[in-house]
Request: fold
Amino acid sequence: MKKMNRRYNINNLEELHAMVASLKAEHKQKGELLLKDTRVYLHQFTLGGLIKKYASPSALLKIDDKLNISSSLMSMVLPFIMNTTLFKGSGFLTKTLVGLASNKVGKSLDAEHISAIFNSVKSWFSGSRKKKDKAPQYVDYGIPPDSETY
Reply:
């Protein structure tokens, strides 16, 4: 760190008090700036800052393309969900076949397929509201407004 060597030309007590007041103000201002910069720097490493930086959809798709996290997760979760919900009372052989089939389907799914499925299911529930809000369309019968047939 660079050492600052200041020389002041102080001749009387009033100049000394003025210099002390200006140095205190400068010290306070630099302390506030340092505190502000420290908060901005530390905000980068908070949980919210890391989520904003790395949990964006494009970042998750890039990670998933490299590691195939979604397909491996779906190959484990999908058989469990199928056997506990749809085939709850089924026998061992049925559950084994469903587990193998859903395992294969889960491995073939990637993040793009999952997001497409999610968007289509979401559109089923949100699509019905849009149809109710539509106003009737203007019907043109082919008669020009300047016509003498009015």
About this structure: The CA atoms of residues 96 and 122 lie 31 Å apart. The first helix runs from residue 13 to 43.
